[in-house]
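Subject: sequence -> structure tokens, single chain

Hey, anyone have a minute? Need the predicted structure for the following. Not urgent.
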Amino acid sequence: MEKTLIVLKPDAVQRWVCGEILSRFEKRGLKIVGMKMMQPDRDFFYQHYETIGTMISRRGEEVFNLNLEAMQRWPVIAVALEGIDAAKVVRQMVGATEPASANPGTIRGDYAHMTFAYGDQAKKGIPNLIHASGNTEEAALELKLWFGNEFFEYQRCDESFLR
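Reply:
Had a minute. Here:
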């Protein structure tokens, strides 16, 4: 069974939509095997977004710094999810990174709408509610950073129907 990471960002925490977002994953059949609220420092987010995610090379240092500033404003909720093709399924559910490009029915398409252009002009990080690992390999690195090996193993009552 595959594991992947989501991080409910400060804008999700501030808007009180964390429960709604988590319930979408549970309803899809993904199992929560780890969860914690925390407020990581800049070094931790640097590891996450640049060492693993190479954000500076993809989007530039200014965007990277704005994102780190936004991520450190309030707490985040890190969640380890488990399921068949978990990383791929979660990415489909989350939608495009730019909220304005995310399809309706995805988390970002239903709960956010900002464009990259507006964020760049306003010099602010994009409030897109959630981070999701890009693929299985990235998920393994991110999960190790956020959780180490602290995962729970248990049987959900509906697993025989879902797996």
